[in-house]
């Protein structure tokens, strides 16, 4: 299989290395706005280089992976859809909600398969939690806790274009909440604060945030995020039900320590980045994309799914800004 990839930055290089190690990839062709970066990555992996996306899509690729900077996602996705090439696109698919809605409409009208990169859907723990909910093992679900706590903040230059902490970090929690529960969010109440670097406030963002979500069946979900979790990268979910509770991410890599005497949990070592935490999920995600390319399955995470997660993030940003509860019907959808 010949796979094209746009983007030779941090996540693009990570995906390229993952793809190069997978058995189904026979050829990899890379492009980037910085052709020097593309060539360096291609030389490392023994891949080909295309001068631009148009040339890459015309080179006979079976599938296309978009891992460029966020502002490039929507234009690249429109190019690949026009070319009829099955595409994997990192989140977010677009910089604005309106543009995401337009892309969802375009995909629906063309039938081109687009797989959006919410890798937690392929993590073994989250899939086990989903199975526990679906089977009724936990009885009715009454509350959920989920968090995305980064070990250290991103570079200051990243924050102004990140979309804010809810769109950048917690959008993964919002997507996996829908995936695990099979429910939609009805309303949100969100807040945030800054205690760290000034560049968050300068960009109108926060470095720590929390949200109370009410699902359409009355389930309560508590969501948190921070850019400052010095103990390590901490991504977890607890699903609390009538008959039991199940937790994702509760293992010896947990980025905290017990205050109780005689407790040796967790023993470590911790995880320090999302790439380390979710490497098996990323591999499974791209393997699933190969099945999409071969026509063996439809997209396991559609642009419509990405839109619904984005709507929750938009509602949280509005709630934080206006300091009020926001119903999801206030946020435009399809």
UniProtKB/TrEMBL annotation:
Q: What class of enzyme is it?
A: oxidoreductase
Annotated Gfo/Idh/MocA-like oxidoreductase N-terminal domain ranges read: 1-118
Q: Give the GFO/IDH/MocA-like oxidoreductase domain ranges.
A: 126-246
A single Gene Ontology MF term assigned here is:
inositol 2-dehydrogenase (NAD+) activity
According to its UniProt record, the EC number is 1.1.1.18, 1.1.1.369
Which Pfam families does the annotation name? Answer: GFO_IDH_MocA, GFO_IDH_MocA_C3
Keyword field: Oxidoreductase
Report the family membership.
Belongs to the Gfo/Idh/MocA family.
Q: Which named protein is this? A: Myo-inositol 2-dehydrogenase/D-chiro-inositol 1-dehydrogenase
Taxonomic source organism: Streptosporangium lutulentum
